[in-house]
Write a structure and sequence with these properties.
heterodimer, A: two-stranded antiparallel sheet, about 0% strand, B: about 120 residues, alpha+beta, Alpha-Beta Plaits, four-stranded antiparallel beta sheet, two-stranded antiparallel ribbon, 6 strands
Chain lengths: ~400, ~120
């Protein structure tokens, strides 16, 4: 029923331009189905039943609205709903309503918080309460945020369509960024990885709707490969670094699904595709010591061309340390020391600490890790870095872990 | 849909380059397409006068109503099918580079609210 819900909501929004009405009509149809199908049996074509029921409800709701103020748009909407046109499956040349909905929810004129909230509420179909919980805010606050976003769409004239070809690449980047943000919010080490799962579902939907977007496939592959590590990444609520994870706990089905997402031939590799390739290198190593670090460095070189961020440079320096030895890694880190954008970033001193430990300089390593502990942004990360520092100080051998 | 486009300065934008100021071409092009309704440059805030009526008394101040780093240097009224069309037009204006542009939709007759809402 979930797949039908989205299709029906997206279609009703296109016809009526009334988001609340569309969601109400679909919720009403779902409720009727749950009441009647157990007694009457599931209809032969459940999708058509739901669509018709939702449309009838939408017509009801439109008619109940103040008749004196019947707007031209509403009259047209009523006509289209009643005519039953659009019952046929979308012709392949017509943009899918679901795609229109996704691009509208992710429109750059909306704040990023609004985009994420709207996508989770209307595209994923989460309740307002569930979206509020995901962002650690009250249901009332989230309700207000959603209301403001819908008002902005209506009053500012945000169009309900798939962007024109010249705008499509940047708008697609925007959609991918929203999905990735939903994933990383869910990835932030909380026990509830429901948001991460939602992001994966959204990624799958996008690939299905835009099969010729290599970056959409790249994002989905990246999400699946990261999601595959969830059972090994958090043990008893504590973070475990990639190097130390029990790889037998990795979700092989997710990894297989990711690797099956072959890139389209002849395309330049974008940032999501490259990050997926990096994750795939790690996924291919049965043990951390089997990792093909030369491939990792080479991929970071390529990634820097399209995404020259200081964090990418940092990760590349760490990879150089793994490929060429700790002294080479430390030299690569020294080259970053002057970058102001990394000034408060805990993973820079953490990386130094790891490499110093591998280089047989535990005292300096401890100092670096203490600096990292002071900069740690979450309790979980602080505890993890403190444990590593204590290992170096204590009797256990100096085994550094990768950030 | 009608939008008022406020043309404002922005101290953090790139420095003004007169050679790249093709505002007249921009107006001509969009007037011809029916998307530009009217507009004009405004004199700087030193020439502004702020008017308030308080307790029955007219209070006048020399200067703009708000002391900010940015000030409004001009305005244009655009007639567009939707926001994406307005954005494209605004992005093509030279002040998109040298300043900042605010697109404010007009209050529509269809809006149900009786008055301004936050």
């Amino acid at each position: 029923m979930a797949g039908e819900r989205l299709r029906i909501v997206a279609g009703l929004i296109r016809i009526t331009r009334d988001w609340d009405l569309a969601e109400d009509a679909v919720a009403d149809a779902a409720e009727r189905a749950l009441r009647r199908w157990p007694a009457e049996g599931v209809p032969a074509n459940p999708g058509a039943w739901l669509t018709t029921t939702a449309r009838r409800r939408a017509i009801d709701l439109l008619r109940r609205a103040d008749v004196e103020r019947a707007k031209l748009g509403e009259v047209a909407a009523l006509a289209e709903l009643a005519s039953g046109a659009d019952d046929l499956p979308q012709a392949s040349c017509l943009p899918d309503d679901r795609l229109r909905l996704i691009f509208t929810c992710c429109h750059p004129a909306l704040s990023i918080e609004a985009r994420v909230a709207l996508t989770l509420k209307v595209v994923s179909g989460l309740s307002t309460a569930a979206v509020a919980r995901a962002f650690l805010t009250s249901e009332a606050t989230m309700g207000q945020r959603l209301l403001r976003a819908k008002r902005k769409i209506a009053h500012a004239g945000i169009p309900y369509r798939v962007p024109s070809p010249d705008l499509l690449p940047e708008r697609m980047d925007g959609v991918l960024a929203v999905i990735y943000l939903i994933f990383t919010e869910g990835y932030a080490g909380t026990a509830d990885d429901a948001l991460a799962g939602e992001a994966v579902r959204l990624g799958r939907l996008l690939v299905q709707l835009v099969p010729d977007s290599d970056e959409a496939r790249g994002l989905l592959a990246l999400l699946l490969l990261q999601h595959a590590r969830r059972a090994a990444r958090l043990v008893d609520g504590e973070l475990v670094t990639l190097e130390r994870q029990d790889r037998t706990k990795w979700d092989t089905a997710a990894i297989d699904e990711a690797l099956a997402l072959e890139p389209l031939t002849g395309t330049d590799r974008g940032p999501y595709r490259l990050q997926a390739a990096l994750a795939a290198v790690h996924a291919a190593a049965p043990e951390a010591s089997d990792t093909d670090w030369a491939a990792v460095v080479s991929l970071y070189d390529e990634l820097l061309d399209v995404l020259p961020s200081p964090v990418v440079r940092l990760n590349r320096a760490i990879a150089i340390g793994m490929r060429d030895g700790p002294l080479a890694g430390l030299a690569a880190l020294d080259a970053l020391a002057g970058d102001a954008r990394l000034a408060g970033y805990h993973l820079l001193p953490a990386a130094r600490g790891d490499l110093l430990a591998r280089a047989g300089r535990p005292t300096e390593a401890v100092t670096a890790l203490e600096h990292a502990v002071a900069l740690a942004p979450t309790d979980q990360e602080r505890r993890q870095l403190t444990r590593r520092r204590d290992e170096l100080r204590g009797t256990s051998p100096a085994v550094g872990g990768l950030a | 849909m009608r939008y008022l486009m406020f043309v404002a300065t922005d101290p953090d934008a790139e420095p003004y380059d007169p050679a790249a100021d093709d505002a007249e071409d921009w107006v001509a092009k969009h007037e011809a397409s029916g998307q530009w309704v009217m507009g004009d440059r405004l004199r700087p805030v030193g020439d502004a006068t702020t008017v308030r009526l308080r307790g029955g008394e007219v209070l006048l101040t020399d200067g703009p109503s708000a002391e900010t780093r940015e000030w409004i240097a001009g305005f244009d009224i655009l007639e567009c099918a939707d926001l994406d069309e307005a954005i494209a037009i605004a992005a093509a204006h030279p002040m998109a580079r040298f300043g900042r542009l605010e697109l404010r939709p007009f209050w529509s007759d269809e809006d149900e609210q009786a008055g301004p809402k936050g």
